[in-house]
């Protein structure tokens, strides 16, 4: 039995993680979880899974739930996230929270020697050097959940990192992949949220549309696999069937394929190095699909991808700024305060205004993260 703590239980990845736990009750048990504001959904999860500890974003919600479920432990805020991430009975943390709020709980879970299944890519973008260094020093398994990184991780099983020629991360192109830049001027929030292949949370769906998601994934891959940026390519592949590939020195390419279903990489991270059946996942039928398409990535069309690669190469606190600016700008777009193309303008301004600090410690990272959010908010207002 694996005892799971889950950050972000009410979200898209959180819900699919619960599906897996539900399908395999003899393999997994949910012992601790966090939610944000969605208390209605939290009530249902508590009733179904009976976790021992639940953390919510707000104190008032924690108090209300404590009255309703007197035998359960409740916590709240940032401390609550850490309590869930380090819950003593849990052996494995699934970090499915959104944003750099996931960084500190991840570091604490690593110190508490939990196996980490990481979906929360913003944590790696914000402070990948601190996270991977802590994982190495504490000798904990740090397993990718993001579909592309799971694909690369699977392609690398039994391989030597020294033999890698390059990583090839595939990109669907997101909701606006068939639009020109000129056509992006008047796009709406609901159009942007209409991803062609994946049903995901709002923030990552917008990131897919701006191609920032792929930029974050390039930085994520750099840290997870310890590969220089020059050896990471992005390839447009509109079907999202090949989840990513690794090319080796001998010109051999290993790809991982499957129908677009996040439960597959989530479950792989939970069962690694084993595999167990996933009855509810659709089988891949290539004969039915017929053909797959590939296209070179245009960094002028997708400026956010260029910003991310450049920020990653500069390193230090530059990716922290990229991520924080993006989080604020995407939320402002979702709230109807800015247009779609203003997302990238704000990120560009934040990056241009920043002088990167080399080898930043956690205090510096947290300071830069907060400062960037304030700068971008003031640009918006
Ligand atoms: N969705 C997907 O298919 C994929 C997602 N990812 C990554 O996984 C992560 C999660 O994405 P996704 O599931 O789509 O996101 P969602 O928006 O669907 O879910 C986010 C979760 O985080 C909680 N949350 C949000 N803000 C806070 C906060 N300040 N404090 C505590 N909890 C908070 C939400 O709680 P509540 O709703 O209760 O407020 C919710 O449980 C992201 O980093 C994303 O990039 C990676 C690959 C695929
Ligand atoms: C499912 C997943 O891993 C997402 O990160 C996905 O990659 C988004 O699709 P895009 O390729 O459009 O960014
Ligand atoms: Mn992905």
TrEMBL record:
<feature type="binding site">
    <location>
        <position position="122"/>
    </location>
    <ligand>
        <name>NADPH</name>
    </ligand>
</feature>
<protein>
    <recommendedName>
        <fullName>1-deoxy-D-xylulose 5-phosphate reductoisomerase</fullName>
        <ecNumber>1.1.1.267</ecNumber>
    </recommendedName>
</protein>
<keyword id="KW-0560">Oxidoreductase</keyword>
<comment type="pathway">
    <text>Isoprenoid biosynthesis; isopentenyl diphosphate biosynthesis via DXP pathway; isopentenyl diphosphate from 1-deoxy-D-xylulose 5-phosphate: step 1/6.</text>
</comment>
<dbReference type="GO" id="GO:0030604">
    <property type="term" value="F:1-deoxy-D-xylulose-5-phosphate reductoisomerase activity"/>
</dbReference>
<feature type="domain" description="1-deoxy-D-xylulose 5-phosphate reductoisomerase N-terminal">
    <location>
        <begin position="4"/>
        <end position="128"/>
    </location>
</feature>
<feature type="binding site">
    <location>
        <position position="201"/>
    </location>
    <ligand>
        <name>NADPH</name>
    </ligand>
</feature>
<feature type="binding site">
    <location>
        <position position="12"/>
    </location>
    <ligand>
        <name>NADPH</name>
    </ligand>
</feature>
<feature type="binding site">
    <location>
        <position position="172"/>
    </location>
    <ligand>
        <name>1-deoxy-D-xylulose 5-phosphate</name>
    </ligand>
</feature>
<feature type="binding site">
    <location>
        <position position="10"/>
    </location>
    <ligand>
        <name>NADPH</name>
    </ligand>
</feature>
<feature type="binding site">
    <location>
        <position position="120"/>
    </location>
    <ligand>
        <name>NADPH</name>
    </ligand>
</feature>
<feature type="binding site">
    <location>
        <position position="13"/>
    </location>
    <ligand>
        <name>NADPH</name>
    </ligand>
</feature>
<keyword id="KW-0521">NADP</keyword>
<keyword id="KW-0464">Manganese</keyword>
<comment type="similarity">
    <text>Belongs to the DXR family.</text>
</comment>
<keyword id="KW-0414">Isoprene biosynthesis</keyword>
<dbReference type="Pfam" id="PF02670">
    <property type="entry name" value="DXP_reductoisom"/>
</dbReference>
<feature type="binding site">
    <location>
        <position position="214"/>
    </location>
    <ligand>
        <name>1-deoxy-D-xylulose 5-phosphate</name>
    </ligand>
</feature>
<feature type="binding site">
    <location>
        <position position="148"/>
    </location>
    <ligand>
        <name>1-deoxy-D-xylulose 5-phosphate</name>
    </ligand>
</feature>
<dbReference type="Pfam" id="PF08436">
    <property type="entry name" value="DXP_redisom_C"/>
</dbReference>
<dbReference type="InterPro" id="IPR013644">
    <property type="entry name" value="DXP_reductoisomerase_C"/>
</dbReference>
<feature type="domain" description="DXP reductoisomerase C-terminal">
    <location>
        <begin position="257"/>
        <end position="374"/>
    </location>
</feature>
<dbReference type="InterPro" id="IPR013512">
    <property type="entry name" value="DXP_reductoisomerase_N"/>
</dbReference>
<dbReference type="InterPro" id="IPR036169">
    <property type="entry name" value="DXPR_C_sf"/>
</dbReference>
<dbReference type="InterPro" id="IPR036291">
    <property type="entry name" value="NAD(P)-bd_dom_sf"/>
</dbReference>
<feature type="binding site">
    <location>
        <position position="195"/>
    </location>
    <ligand>
        <name>1-deoxy-D-xylulose 5-phosphate</name>
    </ligand>
</feature>
<feature type="binding site">
    <location>
        <position position="121"/>
    </location>
    <ligand>
        <name>1-deoxy-D-xylulose 5-phosphate</name>
    </ligand>
</feature>
<feature type="binding site">
    <location>
        <position position="217"/>
    </location>
    <ligand>
        <name>Mn(2+)</name>
    </ligand>
</feature>
<dbReference type="InterPro" id="IPR026877">
    <property type="entry name" value="DXPR_C"/>
</dbReference>
<feature type="binding site">
    <location>
        <position position="213"/>
    </location>
    <ligand>
        <name>1-deoxy-D-xylulose 5-phosphate</name>
    </ligand>
</feature>
<feature type="binding site">
    <location>
        <position position="38"/>
    </location>
    <ligand>
        <name>NADPH</name>
    </ligand>
</feature>
<feature type="binding site">
    <location>
        <position position="148"/>
    </location>
    <ligand>
        <name>Mn(2+)</name>
    </ligand>
</feature>
<feature type="binding site">
    <location>
        <position position="147"/>
    </location>
    <ligand>
        <name>1-deoxy-D-xylulose 5-phosphate</name>
    </ligand>
</feature>
<feature type="binding site">
    <location>
        <position position="11"/>
    </location>
    <ligand>
        <name>NADPH</name>
    </ligand>
</feature>
<comment type="function">
    <text>Catalyzes the NADPH-dependent rearrangement and reduction of 1-deoxy-D-xylulose-5-phosphate (DXP) to 2-C-methyl-D-erythritol 4-phosphate (MEP).</text>
</comment>
<dbReference type="Pfam" id="PF13288">
    <property type="entry name" value="DXPR_C"/>
</dbReference>
<feature type="binding site">
    <location>
        <position position="217"/>
    </location>
    <ligand>
        <name>1-deoxy-D-xylulose 5-phosphate</name>
    </ligand>
</feature>
<dbReference type="InterPro" id="IPR003821">
    <property type="entry name" value="DXP_reductoisomerase"/>
</dbReference>
<keyword id="KW-0460">Magnesium</keyword>
<feature type="binding site">
    <location>
        <position position="36"/>
    </location>
    <ligand>
        <name>NADPH</name>
    </ligand>
</feature>
<keyword id="KW-0479">Metal-binding</keyword>
<feature type="domain" description="1-deoxy-D-xylulose 5-phosphate reductoisomerase C-terminal">
    <location>
        <begin position="143"/>
        <end position="225"/>
    </location>
</feature>
């Amino acid at each position: 039995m694996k005892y799971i703590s889950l950050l972000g239980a009410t979200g898209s990845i959180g819900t699919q993680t619960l599906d897996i736990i539900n399908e395999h009750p003899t393999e997994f048990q949910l012992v601790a979880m966090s939610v944000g504001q969605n208390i209605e959904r939290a009530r249902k999860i508590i009733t179904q899974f009976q976790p021992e500890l639940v953390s919510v974003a707000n104190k008032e919600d924690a108090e209300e739930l404590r009255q309703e479920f007197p035998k359960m432990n409740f916590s709240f805020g940032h401390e609550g996230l850490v309590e869930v991430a380090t819950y003593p009975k849990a052996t494995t943390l699934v970090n499915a929270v959104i944003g750099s709020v996931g960084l500190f709980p991840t570091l604490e879970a690593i110190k508490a020697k939990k196996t980490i299944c990481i979906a929360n890519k913003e944590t790696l973008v914000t402070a990948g050097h601190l996270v991977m260094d802590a994982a190495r020093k504490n000798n904990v398994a740090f397993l990718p959940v993001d579909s592309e990184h799971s694909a690369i991780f699977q392609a690398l099983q039994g391989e030597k990192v020294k033999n890698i020629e390059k990583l090839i991360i595939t990109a669907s192109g997101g909701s606006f992949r068939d639009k020109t830049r000129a056509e992006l001027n008047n796009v709406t929030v609901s159009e942007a949220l209409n991803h062609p292949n994946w049903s995901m949370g709002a923030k990552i769906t917008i990131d897919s549309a701006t191609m920032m998601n792929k930029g974050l994934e390039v930085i994520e891959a750099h840290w997870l696999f310890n590969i220089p940026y020059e050896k990471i390519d992005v390839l447009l592949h509109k079907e999202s069937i090949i989840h990513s590939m690794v090319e080796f020195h001998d010109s051999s390419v290993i790809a991982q394929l499957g129908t677009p279903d996040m439960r597959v990489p989530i479950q792989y991270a939970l069962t690694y190095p084993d595999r167990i059946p996933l009855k509810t996942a659709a089988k891949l039928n290539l004969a039915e699909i017929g053909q797959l398409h590939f296209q070179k990535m245009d960094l002028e069309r997708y400026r956010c991808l260029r910003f991310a690669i450049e920020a990653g190469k500069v390193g230090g606190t530059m990716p922290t700024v990229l991520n924080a600016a993006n989080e604020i700008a995407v939320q402002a777009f979702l709230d109807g305060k800015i247009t779609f193309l203003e997302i990238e303008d704000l990120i560009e301004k934040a990056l241009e205004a920043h002088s990167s600090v080399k080898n930043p410690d956690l205090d510096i990272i947290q300071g830069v993260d907060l400062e960037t959010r304030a700068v971008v908010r003031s640009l918006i207002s």
